[in-house]
Amino acid sequence: MKDLDFFVTNFIKSIKNHKLYQKVSETTKEFIGKCYLNLKKAQEELGPVVLLINEDKIMNNSNVLHSDPKRLTSVPLFLYRNGIRSLTFLEGISEEELEALVTIIASREYSSQVGLLEDLWESKFPHIIYHAVEKTKKLHEYEDDIKPPAGINSQDVTILPVKVKKRNPSQKNKQEIGLKYEQKISIDRERASFLLIESIKDLLSYEINHRKRKSIYLILKDSIPKFLQTGNLSALYQTKKLIENQKENKREFIEILNEMKEILTSKAALQLYIHALTSSNSNRIKREAADLLEYVGISGADEMINELEITSDFIAKDLIISLLKNIFAEHKEELEVRLVNSTEKTFSVLLLIIKRLKDPYFLPCLKDLFEKKNLPQVKEVLFSLLSRKDIISYLNHPDPTVRIIVLEKLKAIWTPEEFEIVRNRIMSKSFWRLDKDEIKALLQLLSTLKTDDTIKIFSTILRKTHFFKDKIYDIKRMALQALPNIKDEKAVELISRYRNSRILKETVAEILKKYETN
Amino acid sequence: MKQTDIRNLILYFSSSIHIARVFQTKSQTLYQHAKKMHQFLSDILKELKQIELSISDNHLFFNDERASVEMGIMGRYRSLIHDLKTLSIGSILFVKLPELEEIVSFLCCLGMNLASSKHSFDEISESLKKEGVKSIKITLIEDSNQRDGILRSIRKEALSSLLDSISYLKKVTIEEETNIFEARQIVRKFTELLFKERSYLIALTIIKDIGSYTFNHSANVCILSIAMGIELGLSRKDLLELGIAALFHDLGKIDIPGDILNKPDTLTNIEYEKIKQHPYLSAERIIFLKGVEEVPVFALRGILEHHIDYSGTGYPDISTRNPTLFARIIRIVDSYDAMTTPRIYQNVRSPFEALKYIIKSNEIYDPSLVKVFLDIMGIYPPGTIVLLKGGMKGVMISENEVAVVEKGKISKSAPKEMTITKALSPNEVDFDAAAILTAVASDKNP
Questions:
Q1: Where are the domains of chain B?
Q2: d(CA A69, CA A56)
Q3: Which residues numbered 244-263 in B keep a CB inside 8 Å of some CB on A?
Q4: pLDDT of A155 higher than 70
Q5: pLDDT reported for residue B445
Q6: Cα A83 from chain centroid?
Q7: How many C-beta neighbours within 10 Å does residue A45 have?
Q8: How many helices (H) and strands (E) are present in chain A, helices listed first?
């Protein structure tokens, strides 16, 4: 009897504790654990444990195990109001089953008089039997309300068994249908949020009544936190699309739509989107997350920049950079501030975004960083933004690495106008004293412009003799390697002339072979 | 016999049946309970030669001694009597101490039979023989009145539930403060009754004139949809949502003027546009109900799509044109009930004719679901008026029972079993099938 007493005490405690924390907390688990042990011991002594539910008591036979005056938080009163008159706990019950029962009871509001029976009915506990009363009207009570059809004397009726050929579908056929639909249903359940949003969209397309329209919006608004809680990214994405497509003029609706946007762009939402973008294996989810992040906009930029440092997912990285590019395109000044004040880690990311933006807005800032602080990473980005005229002015920069970048940039944009500058530079005496990389860049650049003079310049280089043979031959090799870019027979002819050169013949053979293959 | 022995036997016997019904196999838990039963039987049979547990009226008797039970197990006591009566078992005799395996087989057999919608005493007897249960004998309830009484009480419950649903629907349209819980209660009741006595509840859908057409039709569609859901093996949660969808599917029609709904002539375009709004109006009815914590999405979708054909045509013009399962179920059942109801603008079809039309319309109805619907309704759906061999007429009240109607008196000379010749249309008889079905559930019926 003592165990039974303890069981009920811990059962009540478990319910109240669960209600308090709104979940199965550690303490609740502890109570349920104790409750379960007491129940097992009580069952060893009594077999199935039957609890009778009264308005203010829980009893076993006539023994009162728990008493609580009729007040709102009374568990027996709550069970009683829901129609439950007894609970039987059978042997073989598991702790999980008991926990599920506690959860069901605790999840309902004390004031609720309905719903608990449905939950118990749906749960179909194997080791817990509940006895409940439900009010159903007697037939005669319908007289004032609706009458069932009458007019036949019951004495005129006799019931007899009949032989009927029954359609008996083959078991296999039946199983196939059953299986087919079972699968569809399980798929459907996953689609619940999708269908909800689709339905709301449909109802909004139809409903013009102000009050009803507002209620429909509120249903969607109330659903967003649930989507967030369950990490239902697709539903959030769909909601965002729905919000964007709604054209409302009335202030009240615009306010609701804004409130929804606020939830969709909250901090919690942002974290979910970033997590989905970097962790999901599905490209669709990644795309949806990226779209939602763009929706969050500038307020999520810092989190995204930080994520770029952490994530190793190449696709995610690329998506985030594209996103940031789109976001900062609308907030250039924000990007500039961030770049100037950035840490070493974020600097390169921000530079990359500026490079992709290709916006001259950033030139003054970049020039400043480049000139004053001489930050090497800035060079490439800076030149990608400069105009042709500006780029050429940098050809005389004292730093050879700057000049090399300029030459690289020129490749794509130069015209015969700049050819003279390049030609003069190659034909000058100082050319031979330049750094090998710069020489190579100059020769490569030269080879991209096909003019009558181009071959002549190359021919001059190849004929050159000099005291420092090693360097000269290196330069000649570079010239030979650049020549095929001209894509002209004269260029091939010029290369072939050095076929028998003792020093250059191997390079020539290699270049010709490659040329023929291509 | 000691009171404690009786108490324990009732407690373990009823609990074991519950477990067998839930698991429907010889589970570990069932063995655990059976072992206890075995122990009690062994103790009792040390003193007594045999134990007979029998039912009379609403009481249990142990070896002709009426069991007096304490309040604590009253629920279990009643449940045991109810289960045995449902299975038409009048008594259980333990001629000697059964083997443990025999007890397990016996309990499993009872549990499985209770879990199915057909409760056949003959099937139980046959199964017990097959399983080699020799030490436990069962007998049929002797008092046929009692057996009929159970059936009648279920049927009365079915009729009350149907009326409950109609008065609820009426309330929904009048009062703003109606809640969804009552709807759930109705659907739950229908579901339980369909598990217990499917045929009669289906037969009740032949009643078409309680309250307004829309209410009666909604209740009928609800019953038939749940029956289909059960046949498809849907979970209780799904059945609940399906039932709610079906119950509310046409309720939006209440907001459409009656002169449009009941117009005998062809509708104008404007009028037809109004009719096409009813899925929206019905869908709104469930989402604005009091107590809807979580929108029953599948019910909502089922209502919105219930006029979208299997091929994707139909109305209203909504975003997705592939109707969900609930919508496809309601599409069939809705049409069936509408076709079999006399309306000003259409000729009534017999259930047989309506089924024929549904089978032929592959574009409109999901053919796989049509098969399931046919399995439920059979050749002569419950509620069908039939002509019997020998010229008598009657109404099908279940798959294998017919209520024979004769002028004036009960046919005392009626044979034990009847053969159906053909189905008749309501115009060919001078009685109302609905009234017969109501009378079957009435107290005055013999």
A1: 3-142, 147-377, 385-441
A2: 5
A3: none
A4: no
A5: 40
A6: 45
A7: 11
A8: 26, 6
pLDDT at A188 over 60: no
Judged by DSSP in three states, B217 sits in helix
Coil, strand or helix at B346: strand
Residues 170-199 of B with CB under 8 A from A: 170, 179, 181-182, 184-185, 188-189
> Using 50, 70 and 90 to split pLDDT, how confident is the model at A253?
very high
pLDDT, position A136: 59
Residues 156-175 of B with CB under 8 A from A: 156-157, 159-161, 163-164, 166-167, 170
Domain A389-518: give its CATH superfamily.
Answer: Leucine-rich Repeat Variant (1.25.10.10)
Q: What CA–CA distance (Å, rounded) separates B15 from B30?
A: 9
- Interface probe for B, chosen from A97, A158, A184 (most Cβ of B below 10 Å), is A158
In this complex, the residue of B167, B304, B414 whose CB is nearest that of residue A202 is B304
Q: Where in chain A is the domain with CATH 1.25.10.10?
A: 389-518
pLDDT computed for residue A168 by the predictor? 46
With contacts defined as CB-CB under 8 Å, which chain B residues touch A114? 179, 181-182, 184-185, 291
Categorize the per-residue pLDDT at A74 as very low, low, confident or very high, splitting at 50, 70 and 90.
confident
Mutate to test the interface with B, among A57, A171, A195 (most CBs of B within 10 A): A195
Cβ contact, residue pair B400, A163, below 8 Å: yes
Q: What is the ipTM of this complex?
A: 0.75
- Lowest mean pLDDT, pick from A148-152, B236-240, B329-333: A148-152
Give the strands of the sheet with A84-89, arranged side by side. A63-67, A57-60, A49-53, A84-89, A128-132
The β-bridge relationship of strands A157-163 and B418-424 is parallel
Q: Can you give the pLDDT at residue A164?
A: 56
Q: Is the pTM of this model over 0.90?
A: no
B 308-367 residues with CB < 8 A to A: 316, 318-320, 324-325
CA-to-CA dists, residue B12 to A262, B88, B131, angstroms: 58, 20, 21
CATH domain B147-377 topology? Hypothetical protein af1432 (1.10.3210)
- Name residues 409-438 of chain A within 8 A of B (Cβ): none
CB-closest option in B300, B372, B407 to A199: B300
Nearest CA in chain B to A59: B72
* Average pLDDT over chain A, rounded to an integer: 84
Q: What is the pLDDT of residues B163-199, one digit of tens each?
A: 889 988 888 888 777 778 889 889 999 998 888 778 8
